[in-house]
Amino acid sequence: MSGLPENVKIREVGPRDGFQNEPEVIDTEDKIRLINLLSATGLKCMEVTSFVRPDVIPQLADGPQVLAGIERREGVSYSVLIPNLKGLEKALEYREYFDEASFFLSASETHNMKNVNRSVEDSLSGLEQTVPLAIEAGLGCVGIIATSFGCPYEGVVPQEKVFALAERLRAAGCSEVGFGDTTGMANPLQVRGFFREAFARLDGVELTAHFHDTRGQGLANVLAALEEGISSFESSFGELGGCPVPPGATGNVASEDVVSMIGEMGIETGVDLKKLIAASAEAQSVLGRPLGSHVLRAGPVDWHPSR
Ligand code: ZN
């Protein structure tokens, strides 16, 4: 095993990636309450909404109200997802409420077309115009590459293609590039090889892993990435979230499962696991259905109901 990182940064994406994939629109007040609970857990980064067109994603149409309504905590970096130049223009009207912007595209032509109805090159050249404007506005920029480890429509996505996209996002000014296993197709051996190569290819940019637990391999992939030295992850409380296409591609790896596992391994996240579990329990009662996270059901390893 190579050296594991001593500290890990987790970006909580449930309020965006999770809430947008719920069939019902969650009340703005409930979203604000849940985000405030998450802010109090010690998480340093949170993606709280997106500026995708409200007719496309009505679940996040209240982005501005959510941004204005949450308690902004010292030491927490709040981010929003921005699809394109128009989305950035809209978001900048609320600039005072967030610190970072995430931009996404798929590495797979078919997935990108189904998701945003554009070719990968069209998406990328759009981002190359948009990211510099976000930087001018003082925002930290994160580029997220979906289907980095496989595509539900095309199968294998060549690593070379993913790294070429990452290099262009870095050149556009992204200080962080995230690799999404959007429909849970990655395996741990693939993840190790992928990040070994990514470190060799992509210096000067923070590398982030975003795994889904669609096929139960989420935590195994987190471990594989840790073993290659990845210290930045995106995850979702309660295992909320997924991907709009194809249907059924649910389940970001749960933040509390990640925090629990790596905490038990002696790696620092700064997150209070019990507070995080309480936030997920609250999400569970808001949504009125059991959520998929393991640690939400079982409790932390040092927790016993009889005590
Ligand atoms: Zn996701």
Q: Which regions have little confidence, pLDDT < 50, spanning 5+ residues?
A: none
Question: What would you give as the CATH superfamily?
Answer: Aldolase class I
Number of helical segments? 12
Give the number of DSSP strands: 8
3D shape: globular
The CATH topology label is: TIM Barrel
Mean pLDDT: 94
CATH class type: Alpha Beta
| Succession of helices and strands | EHHEHEHEHHEHEHEHEHHH
In percent, how much strand structure appears in the residues? 5-15%
Gap between N and C termini: 37 Å
Structure description:
- With 307 residues, the chain is α/β, with parallel strands linked by helices.
- It has a single domain, classed as Aldolase class I (TIM Barrel), CATH 3.20.20.70.
- The chain has 12 helices and 8 strands.
- Strands 1-2-3-4-5-6-7-8 form an 8-stranded parallel β-barrel, surrounded by 7 helices.
- α8 runs parallel beside α9.
- The termini are far apart.
- The site of zinc ion (ZN) has 6 residues, from loops.
